[in-house]
Amino acid sequence: MAFPDIIADLKAAAPETRGRLLANQSLAEFTWFRVGGPAQVLFTPADEDDLAYFLAHLDAAIPVTVIGVGSNLIVRDGGIAGVVIRLAPKGFGAVSVNGDVIEAGAAALDKRVATVAGEAGLAGLEFMVGIPGSVGGALRMNAGAHGRETKDALVSARAVTRRGEKITIDNAGMGFSYRKSTVPTDHIFTAGLYRGTPEAKDAIAARMAEVTAHREAAQPIREKTGGSTFKNPPGNSAWKVVDAAGCRGLIVGGAQVSEMHCNFLINRGNATAADIENLGEEVRRRVREHSGVALEWEIKRIGEAKR
Question: Which DSSP category does 221 fall into?
Fold first, then answer.
């Protein structure tokens, strides 16, 4: 399907916009599952000022959706109406160190943040090597791995509101809990500041290598996947209840529960977004029927079903 082209209206309302505006741009290429429909408008801002200017001049009635590197995301086959904002590495991917503080743009990969910190002799961010995504997504969902979470290292985050205001939010203001932040969803994170602890670089590198080796051995990272599918139930592991319900290797259309790690769904090559989402719902149904556990999605699902 194709959405009405509204780019001329957007440019008329915000003529000094420097970023790129594309009509009916497929989003499949921007997600790790490689599925999904188009964005009515895909906006890639040049930098934080450009993002703030564009939002300040955008009609409040036009919906805004933000995507990062698309790792923990399903875009439904019907696409997304309104403006989809994608923060690209060119404008939002810088990572720098000042003393014991690491500043990272929202488009910087989490593993790069860990690497830069380690090279600077700053410990405490090694866990980020095991997170398949970018800083913006990690801030939004308090991403974590190997016993640590974003909240354990974050000092503050920068964001732009739907009205185009640039703000700073400290750690306490993020409202972090397990895989969640209470920051309003119409606030777009643009950067995060993290604090590390000085330590020998060799020791940090060894721990990062251990995290990387564990991930490569236990997770289907070379498949078209979206990372961990479901949140861990209280006192349990999602993969364990999925496995116990007999869902390892389960197939719906072109989607499959990974044989390697059954909290991962994979695109076998010809899956639609609907296949992947339907598979996830079937897994949830079987787990609920088998053990009474109500699994919650960790992967974000956005957009409209194909009509």
Answer: T
**What is the third-level CATH fold of 7-86?**
3.30.43
- Residue 35, both tokens: 């599925």
- Structurally, at CATH architecture level, domain 91-218 sits in 2-Layer Sandwich (3.30)
**Active-site residue list:** 179, 228, 298
Amino acid at 212: T
Q: What is the per-residue pLDDT for 1? A: 66
Report d(CA 231, CA 53) in Å as an integer: 36
User: Domain ranges in the chain?
Assistant: 7-86, 91-218, 224-301
Average pLDDT, the chain: 95
b/e per residue 73-103 (b: at least 16 CB within 10 A): bbbbbbbbbbbbbbbbeebbbebebeebebb
Predicted pLDDT at 2:
87
Q: What is the mean pLDDT of residues 213-223?
A: 83
What's the CA angle centered on 7, arms 4 and 9, to 5 degrees? 100
Cβ proximity of 250 and 257 under 8 Å: yes
Q: Are strands 255-257 and 265-267 parallel, antiparallel or unpaired?
A: antiparallel
Answer for the pair 195, 100: CB distance below 8 angstroms, yes or no.
yes
Question: Using one digit for the tens of pLDDT, what is the confidence trace for 157-207?
Answer: 999 999 999 999 999 999 999 889 999 999 999 999 999 999 999 999 999
Separation CA 222–CA 39 (nearest Å): 26
Q: Which CATH architecture has domain 224-301?
A: Alpha-Beta Complex (3.90)
Convert the pLDDT of each residue in 62-86 to its tens digit: 999 999 888 889 999 999 999 999 9
